Amino acid sequence: MPVTVVIGSQWGDEGKGKIVDLLAPEVDIVARYQGGANAGHTIVWDDQHFVLHLIPSGIFHEGVTCVIGNGVVIDPVALMEEIRQVEALGFQVEGRLLISHNAHLIMPYHKALDKARERWRDAEAIGTTGRGIGPAYVDKFARTGIRVVDLLDRDGLREKLCTALDEKNAILQSVYHDEAIDVEAMIEEYVDFDQRIDPFVTDTTAFLGQALANGKRILAEGAQGALLDVDFGTYPYVTSSHPTAGGCCTGLGVPPTSIDRIVGIVKAYTTRVGNGPFPTELQDDDGELLRAQGHEFGATTGRPRRCGWLDTVALRYTARLNGFTDLAVTKLDVLAGMYELKVCMAYRIGDKTTERFPNDIATLERAEPIYETLPGFDGDLSGIEAVEDLPGDARDYLKFISDVIGVPISMISTGPRREETLVV
Ligand code: IMP
Questions:
Q1: Ligand 1 mean position to 227 CA, how many Å?
Q2: Active-site residue 41, yes or no?
Q3: CATH classification of 3-100+202-262, choosing from 3.90.110.10, 1.10.3720.10, 3.40.440.10, 3.40.50.150?
Q4: Spacing, Cα 354 to ligand 1 middle (Å)
Q5: Residue 192 designated active-site
Q6: Of the candidates 33, 38, 61, 3, which has an alpha carbon nearest to the alpha carbon of residue 418?
């Protein structure tokens, strides 16, 4: 079976970019299926450090074709800038990047509305990345979105944009007291984008279907994390797409029966950017230490990430939702030097104890973690080349995680570089 899906098992930022980059040489195609430029997938090789927001993390492997599927929302400005940056590093993009003609576009009014709504929500703000993701998906489902294919028909595009802006400007001005967006400038910008994007656009579903028929292997790269899924995450503090495994089928047009491997990426502790419940969050020196040692600052927005202990209640929940076949544990090195490691095993909610993840936030906000404490480990893990050479307490920590979640570990990341990875 030819499709492997890589999924963030927590609230995003688990290190998916590195794992996708590592698995890419084993496949023919790497495809993004949801989200947009809210993602920040970091890849480090030699002394180079690169953050990809839209282009799939297989782009640095010459033999790999990259696909941006229909489920992604594309910010043309961000995409063109990213193509330019990747090309500047000496990598060929044209001919290797295919963009779905059915993907929806993020328009300037989506970004303006995203920011205005967050301002309006004030204390209840979601803490979005401000990239226009939510408003673009709203238009997709309201059937008023602009798709890549719409760029081909200039007159039709002008009409659609004028209609959209009539409504959006009315909302921006009268509800949010923002400035109106100029339709002519926007049309000019998108017509220019049409000319530049043209060589990349195709029916990616047909391409992927043919690839499967020819026995090619596809790596589907999830963005964000399962706990940010619009249905299964901590609603409303979620993103507006499906980072879970099901999103791969609807976001690429590949059948569920073509998937044979679902890799859950688990950061060795937990982080979250933006607002919303986070039962194991640490607001003490340990939290500061994790943030400092793990460089826990958003790859897209630069915001400091909230940090906390590993939460196996949440992980068992996302393992159940996604059917992880194996786990890649990342950032193990960040825990080195901590005296002891806590792992959340259950929640106390009022006078009850539960091992079930409540995904309604009113309940989750009252959840107090019940921890099991494991010994910490010391030492620099970066030069270690075999699992057996890890400190005993680090191996025990990994075995503990795998046993509790009930899924084997296939990869362990001990640093940001490609070489700093142990394959089990
Ligand atoms: P949006 O996706 O920009 O609408 O933001 C919704 C929520 O998802 C916010 O809490 C963001 O911080 C979070 N989020 C979006 N993309 C990412 C990501 O790539 N990593 C981590 N959190 C993200």
A1: 11
A2: yes
A3: 3.40.440.10
A4: 28
A5: no
A6: 61
Q: What Cα–Cα distance (Å) separates residue 256 from each residue in 3, 59, 198? A: 9, 25, 30
CA dist 234 and 239 (Å) reads 10
Q: Whose CA is nearest to atom 19 of ligand 1?
A: 39
CATH number, domain 265-423: 3.90.170.10
Domains in the chain: boundaries: 3-100+202-262, 104-196, 265-423
Name every protein residue with a CB atom under 6 angstroms from any ligand 1 atom: 11-13, 38-40, 126-129, 131, 133-134, 223-224, 228, 237, 239-240, 273-274
pLDDT averaged per 10 residues, the chain (length 424): 93 96 96 96 85 94 97 95 95 96 97 97 94 98 96 89 95 96 89 88 98 98 98 98 98 97 98 97 96 93 95 98 98 96 98 94 97 95 93 98 98 94 95
Going by alpha carbons, the residue nearest to atom 15 of ligand 1 is 38
CA of 410 to the centre of ligand 1 (A): 27
What CATH topology corresponds to 104-196?
A: Adenylosuccinate Synthetase, subunit A; domain 2 (1.10.300)
pLDDT of the residue at 344: 98
Distance CA 270, CA 294 (A): 11
Predicted model pTM:
0.97
Distance CA(268)–CA(262), nearest Å, equals 18
Task: From 141, 154, 132, 155, select the one nearest 79 (Cα to Cα).
Answer: 132
Distance (Å, whole) CA 281 – CA 344 = 11
Tell which residue, 317, 288, 312, 322, has the closest CA to residue 398.
312
Q: Which helix (H) or strand (E) holds 422?
A: strand 421-423
